[in-house]
């Protein structure tokens, strides 16, 4: 059986651990990153209002700046594509089959 990476035998195992994530799973992870970043933006915005009311204007300015920059960061992070997987997959290693020792010559 031949495949894009070269020639292989039909009884060679297919390594599923090296397969990429499904498109749906990748999309869910991107949406999750986006929603977390936008949640942090909402917290920064509310924090800016509270801190401005308390009188900590310079800290409120940082919170406002963060709430203005985070939407751009969220979009860039969501559109960045899949993250590379640096883990080494646990590959299947076939153990050699046990064989009988070669027959001895019984003629003396």
Beta-strand residue fraction: under 5%
Query: Spans of 5+ residues with little confidence (pLDDT < 50)?
Result: none
Characterize the main sheet: 2 strands, antiparallel
For the largest sheet, list the strands in their spatial order. 1-2
Which range best describes the helical content: under 10%, 10-25%, 25-40%, 40-55%, 55-70% or over 70%? Answer: 40-55%
Summarize the helix and strand pattern as letters: EEHH
- Radius of gyration over all CA atoms, rounded: 29 Å
**Counting H and I runs of at least 4 residues, what is the number of helices?**
2
Assign an overall shape. rod-shaped
Q: How many beta-strand segments? A: 2
Class per helix and strand makeup: mainly alpha
Mean pLDDT: 78
Separation, N- and C-terminal Cα atoms: 48 Å
Task: List strands and helices in order, with pairings.
Layout: E1 2-3, E2 6-7, H1 23-54, H2 57-78
Antiparallel strand pairs: 1-2
Note down, in words, how this protein is organized.
The chain has 108 residues and is mostly helical. The chain has a domain of 58 residues. A hairpin with a 2-residue loop joins β1 and β2. α1 runs antiparallel to α2. The two termini are 48 Å apart.
Structure summary:
By secondary structure, this protein is mainly alpha-helical. The chain has a domain at 21-78. The protein has helices at residues 23-54, 57-78, and strands at 2-3, 6-7.
């Amino acid at each position: 059986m031949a495949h894009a990476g070269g020639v292989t035998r039909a009884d060679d195992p297919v390594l599923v651990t090296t397969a990429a994530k499904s498109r749906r799973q990748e999309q869910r992870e991107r949406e999750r990153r986006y929603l977390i970043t936008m949640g942090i933006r909402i917290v920064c915005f509310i924090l800016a209002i509270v801190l401005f009311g308390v009188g900590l204007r310079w800290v409120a300015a940082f919170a406002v700046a963060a709430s203005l920059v985070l939407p751009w960061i969220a979009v860039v992070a969501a559109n960045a594509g899949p993250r590379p997987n640096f883990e080494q997959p646990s590959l299947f290693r076939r153990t050699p089959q046990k064989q009988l020792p070669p027959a001895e010559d019984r003629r003396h």
